[in-house]
Specification:
This protein has 64 residues and is mainly beta. The protein has one helix spanning 39-42; strands at 17-18, 25-26, 31-32, 37-38. It has one domain. A hairpin with a 4-residue loop joins strand 3 and strand 4 (37-38). Bound molecules: zinc ion (ZN) (2 copies). Residues 5-29 form the HIT-type domain.
Length: 64
């Protein structure tokens, strides 16, 4: 399975790996090669929600 696009963590580097847990495409910096998961999945304490769950196409009511 090839990974295309940019890292979903930093969104700057080219994604080289896909997290085996959440499926996020991440760069080598944000990928734990030992566990095969992204830094967020590898770090139980890192509960900070950096990922936008699913597609970020939530319709935001527009104020007019
Ligand atoms: Zn990254
Ligand atoms: Zn992950």
């Amino acid at each position: 399975m090839s990974v295309t696009g940019v890292c979903q963590v930093c969104e700057r580097r080219e994604a080289e790996y896909a997290c085996h847990r959440c499926g996020a495409a991440v760069c080598s910096v944000h990928f734990d090669t030992e566990q095969g998961v992204c830094v967020h999945c590898a770090d139980p304490e890192g509960s900070e929600d950096v990922f936008s769950e699913g597609d970020t196409d939530d319709e935001v009511p527009e104020f007019r």
